Amino acid sequence: MIEGTLVDLVPFEDDFALYLETWMNEEAWFRAHLWERREPHTEHDVKKYIERMEKDERGALIGFQAKNGDPIGAVIFDHEWPRVRKAEARFFAGDSRYEGSDEVLDALLMLVRYCFETRNLHRLDAVALPFDEVRLEHLRRAGFVHEGTLRQHIRWDGDYVDMEMFGLLDSEWPGYAAKVAGLDLQPSGLEPKPRPEKKDEKKDGAG
Amino acid sequence: MKIEGLLVDLVPLGERFNALEHRWENGEAAFWGDVGDRQFVSLAVVKRRQEERAARKDQELHSGFGIQAKDGTPIGLFVVGDIKPHLRLGILGVQIGEPQYWGGGYGTDALLLIVDYAFDWLDLRRLWLVTMSLNARVTRQMEKVGFALEARQRRATLADGAWHDLLFYGVQREEWPGREAMIERLGLRAQG
Question: Least CB-CB distance to B168: which of A86, A150, A152?
């Protein structure tokens, strides 16, 4: 676990895997991944997604949870390019109650901290849909710089839409502590949600 | 089958090109094409990449041609890669492996052929490509042929010890005037 201000980063296991079946069918997941093929994700898809990320040597799927232990969502670094020391940064609130919250912003800051201060990366890339104002605001507050727009690069809900590109350099990052000191992060104060039932628990109970 | 240009023709990629690719991949062209990387590439790696390329072609997610000069000399290759059918877009990748054919319009002639091919035959809607800010030949070429500079990833690659930006260029089908008009605009002429 790496402790942040409002959230902690934790390995993406156990409870997170249980929640992901719901989370991967939430709007935030599709927007975070620019996943224009809006097919419903089955249990099998979710398992495959987790397996792919577990095997990924150029990235990782990392859970983030509130200070009370309630799983909120995930941050991801992917396509790490060792020669250039850069990677893509992604984040999403699986629990839609936290959409746009400072918990999600803190998770993004913790991802940046991990990438720059632990993995020694030099640069992070990020992308967003032009109408995803919540994501754009998180990126702006985290310090990402808008670097351009790939025109009509994505298919979304019947139209071709632009893809906004962002970048953050290690030289622009003041360090996690200094960054947080300038942001006045506020907790949402939400109650933990009920834990979903494990599939094998159900089976054990029935047997 | 070949697609005939003024200075070059696009021809099937085959053994003739495969045999040269190992040298090209270890030469200067790869440095420019791979945005600053200089790899020591073994024959086995080249072969594996060729097989992967063929597999993507089988899935119709990739289309590639050899580029040859009018005297039949193989000089490089051109691909439309990462084709996404539901987005109708693809990324262009080119390698003129023989440095004596840099400048002189060979790459541009091949580019005009492949853009027409991608729009008129593959029915793509958008093409894009990535180069590094150090690559003045390509950035000049992009300006000449009307690709728009859409994004600049700052300090996103390292080339010969210095940071350079990655430049993302794109062209939409409705912006493309067609090969004939572009030949006229550029004053491209056949040799001899």
Answer: A150
Residue B192 placed within a domain? no
CATH number at residue B76: 3.40.630.30
- For the domain spanning A2-183, the CATH number is 3.40.630.30
pLDDT, tens digit (0-9, with 9 covering 90-100), for B106-137: 999 999 999 999 999 999 999 999 999 999 99
| Yes or no, beta carbons of B86 and A36 under 8 Å apart | yes
Based on the structure, what is the number of domains in chain B? 1
Please list, residue by residue across A92-109, b when 16 or more beta carbons sit within 10 angstroms of its beta carbon and e when fewer do: bbbbeebbbbbbbbbbbb
Q: How many residues are listed for chain B in this entry?
A: 192
ipTM associated with this complex: 0.93
Angstroms from B35 CA to nearest CA on chain A: 10
- The pTM score is 0.93
Between chains, do B150 and A150 touch, taking CB under 8 Å as contact?
A: yes
Q: Counting runs of H as helices and runs of E as strands, what totals does chain B give?
A: 6, 8
